[in-house]
Design goal:
Length: 124
């Protein structure tokens, strides 16, 4: 199977710090407006995916959801979750007070990878 999502070592370290402070986490990448397309980190249950949003994988054991419309646009791409110094556009994500912001790097899947992609779970 081809994985849809990876995470950098720097992002893993930040996720572990956030989990130690906040407990179970979740990630959501929206499709625009106030928060842009910046991935947001919340305490689990602090945000509820909308109907038909896509669960594309887990980072450090925590769900990573993508807005249904954004997923349709990026369904042929691999996501790598990274972290940068600075403040993201939304400011609602748990890493913001630490002067960090999550970012996703994209690359298109190869034809072989596309043939081995798992189905995504959709929210109801």
């Amino acid at each position: 199977m081809t994985e849809r999502l990876d995470v950098t070592d720097e992002a893993k370290a930040l996720i572990q710090t956030l989990a130690a402070t906040h407990g179970d986490l979740m990630f959501y990448q929206a499709g625009g407006c106030c928060e842009g397309t910046q991935p947001q980190c919340f305490e689990k249950g602090g945000y509820f995916p909308r109907m038909n949003d896509a669960l594309i994988g887990h980072v450090e054991g925590f769900e990573f959801w993508v807005d249904r419309d954004l997923f349709e646009y990026w369904k042929h791409a691999h996501f790598t979750l990274d972290v940068l110094d600075g403040f993201g556009p939304g400011g609602f994500s748990l890493e913001t007070p630490l002067g960090k912001t999550f970012k996703v790097h994209y690359r298109l899947f190869s034809e072989e990878e596309l043939a081995h992609l798992p189905e995504v779970q959709r929210s109801e």
